[in-house]
Design goal:
The chain has a single domain, classed as P-loop containing nucleotide triphosphate hydrolases (Rossmann fold), CATH 3.40.50.300. 33% of the residues lie in helices and 23% in strands. It contains 5 helices and 7 strands. It has a 7-stranded mixed β-sheet, with helices on both faces. The longest helix has 17 residues. Bound molecules: guanosine-5'-triphosphate (GTP) and magnesium ion.
């Protein structure tokens, strides 16, 4: 099993040209703004403030990279679809994310973080479709599971499991960054990706 708590901040980039060399293995965290991408990274690495989190959507504005060791990295992407950001700037972020996702050869898979109360929104489906065509593996996290009771969590999990049967290499699980639920399952999935 990989020692995720060894993660160290590597670099923040605003432009794709600033990325470290396309070598080794990367796993990226994507999803709508405020879904909890940065919180999940902090839980995974057992470091409260490694990735910056905020109640204000749009906190992560750059691509932040964290190193687990010399050839394994975690990548915190800015949130998709943060409406309050002015048009051109929001376009710029989307371009940055798209460029990263489409050009990065060392990308092994994407953890697509969703708020369990708003699963599979349009932007998530676009990502799933694109990843499926590009043969990129996706692991869906139904984060903030603590916001729903167990029956409601199960119902949404089943619904999403049904929907993703159409896609290859796509899995889903319940997660809570606040209650730290689902961590072993997430670690297992990432370990599989880092093995390839
Ligand atoms: N209840 C609950 N709240 C959560 C959970 N995970 C994250 N949050 C809260 O959701 C808010 C957004 O979390 P972030 O981790 O900053 O979200 P993000 O996806 O990185 O957001 P951007 O960087 O803006 O795209 C914060 O107020 C977190 O405390 C969770 O599992 N349960
Ligand atoms: Mg963030």
């Amino acid at each position: 099993m990989i020692n995720f708590s060894a993660a160290k901040f590597l670099i923040s980039i605003a432009n794709i040209s600033q990325l470290p060399e396309d070598k080794g293995l990367e796993v990226a965290f994507a999803g709508r703004s405020n879904a909890g991408k940065s919180s999940v990274i902090n839980v995974l690495t057992q470091q409260k403030n490694l990735a910056r989190t905020s109640k204000t959507p749009g906190r992560t504005q750059l691509i932040n990279l964290f190193a687990l060791d010399e050839n394994k990295r975690l990548v915190d992407l800015p949130g998709y679809g943060y409406a309050k950001v002015a048009g051109s700037l929001s376009r710029q972020w989307a371009d940055l994310i798209d460029q990263y996702l489409t050009s990065r050869h060392c990308l092994q898979g994407v953890v697509l973080v969703m708020d369990i109360r708003h699963p599979l929104r349009e932007i998530d489906l676009q990502m799933l479709n694109w990843a499926n065509q590009s043969q990129l593996a996706i692991h869906l996290l139904l984060n903030k599971a603590d916001k729903l009771n167990y029956g409601e969590q199960k119902k949404i999990l089943l619904m999403v499991e049904q929907k993703i049967k159409l896609f290859n290499s796509t899995t889903v699980q319940l997660f809570s960054s606040h209650k730290i639920n689902g961590l072993d399952e997430l670690k297992q999935r990432l370990s599989d990706w880092y093995k390839d």
